[in-house]
Design brief:
Low-confidence stretches: 239-295, 303-311
Bound molecules: zinc ion
Oligomer: single chain
CATH class of one domain: Alpha Beta
CATH architecture of one domain: 3-Layer(aba) Sandwich
Helix content: 25-40%
Strand order of the largest sheet: 2-1-3-5-4
Radius of gyration: 18 Å
Largest sheet: 5 strands, mixed
Strand content: 5-15%
Order of helices and strands: EHHEHEEEHEEEEHHHH
CATH topology of one domain: Collagenase (Catalytic Domain)
Length: about 300
Amino acid sequence: MPLYVALYPIAADDSPTTRDYLAGLEGQRFAAIDRFFAREAARYHLGLDTPLKIRLRPALDAVPPQREPTAGRLATALFTLKLRAWAFLHSGHAHEPEDIRLFVLYHDPERTPAVPHSLGLRKGLIGVVYAFATPRMDGANEVVIAHELLHTLGATDKYDPDSDAPRFPDGYGDARQQPLFPQHYAELMAGRRVISPTRWLQAESLDEVLIGPSSAREIHWPEHPEAPPAERPEALRAPPLETRAARCPAQPSAARTAACSSGWEAASTERDSRPIGSPSRSVNVPPASVTIATQAAISRMLMSVSTTTSI
Ligand SMILES: [Zn+2]
């Protein structure tokens, strides 16, 4: 029996772009997430062809409670109780199992270039994902959805919250890869592919992501996975922009300097100048200025509330 994941889309604003995007959503849109978990389960010899199945639910009109960015431990605990009560009220009415419930709030990137942190609650198996209502961001949205999904199952973040740097070794796609850089894959709970000791790029689709042994252990998957495929499609391995990397600090654990940070954003944006995936519908592509902010925002989308998993 797979784990059934009910995905409830929610329009986070009244933009026609968001409305049209939600109207065009169909279950098939999320098949890449099912395929990703099937691929990784096979690599870990889990013995399940379909470990997890996403089921698209009708869009909700209600918006879940939002956690204050400054919330401390107590406020966060109260928030999670409120969120669970809200989820109880607004979901679970279908005659199908809902092992995990994900509420995905879609934002028009023209109106909201930066979204709040997504989060996954282990207790209650609830995730709230802040996503962008454009096919151009489908791949990045899927990475965030899969990341929060794994949080609900008990996986923890594998990156340094101050610098966004994937932690070595457990935040690397393959810590034994030779040579170590550039990493061919991003680890799901780090969300970023390490290009050099000083540079990492947001994963833009689940094709460039895998589940590392540390995260696998946390969700009670078997040990000793097959090695990841050494080669990925050429298109995914965009050449690193070394000129920008030269301005960054020498140690990956060091906090990012402003120069490094802006270099990273610029690098991401340049990478983003080509189409991501194959949009199934025609929607206006955000102008470059919005894309810069949007790309920067994805890294924040991945962060979660660290205290929530222990509440
Ligand atoms: Zn996280």
